[in-house]
Amino acid sequence: MIEIAWSNFTPWSALAGGILVGIAAASFLLLNGRIAGISGILGGLLSPA
């Protein structure tokens, strides 16, 4: 069985990094009107029907 070393479990840096990535993606969407990432790249290749 796997045991978690709770004394070494510090999710705060991961949480802060996730928040920063979310802020960056939301800012890119609001400022440029495009979605960052592979979905935005592939969506730009497809023509609207």
Automatic annotation (TrEMBL):
The chain crosses the membrane at residues 12-31. Keywords: Membrane, Transmembrane, Transmembrane helix. It comes from the Bacteria. This is YeeE/YedE.
